[in-house]
Amino acid sequence: MAIGQTITVNAILEREVAPNVLEARVDKVLALRQAEKITSAQFLVLKRLIEDRREPKDLTDYLDDKLSERDFLELLYAGVFEPQGVPRGKP
User: Fold this and answer.
1) For 14-58, what is each residue's pLDDT tens digit?
2) How many alpha carbons fall within 13 Å on the CB side of residue 84?
3) pTM score
4) Residues 6 or more apart from 63 whose CB is under 8 A from it?
5) CA–CA gap between residue 14 and residue 11 (Å, rounded)
6) CA nearest neighbour of 71 among 58, 85, 60, 88
7) CB-based contacts of 51: which residues, under 8 Å, 6+ apart?
8) CA atoms within 13 A on the CB side of 33
9) In angstroms, how far is CA 63 from the centroid of its own chain?
10) Residue 61 and which of 16, 23, 49, 74 are 20 to 30 A apart at CA?
């Protein structure tokens, strides 16, 4: 019975908390776009990856503050995220 309750609690948390968490993650990437550190095309693909919960490890590390902005942008500009459809290069 405890397992069923855990599943119920997890389902509730995913429905109610996840949109706020996703919004905060998208906002962090949006801040890069607004500062003109990434292109619109890069932002749109990164936003889609976040919303679809298909974030590559380096993006997850950046969003979780485990990877600095500078290091994340170096990877982005170098084309590390191209397999996920994120264009390479600087704005």
Assistant:
1) 544 466 788 899 999 999 999 999 999 999 999 999 988 888 999
2) 23
3) 0.76
4) 25, 28, 29, 50, 55
5) 5
6) 58
7) 22, 26
8) 14
9) 6
10) 16
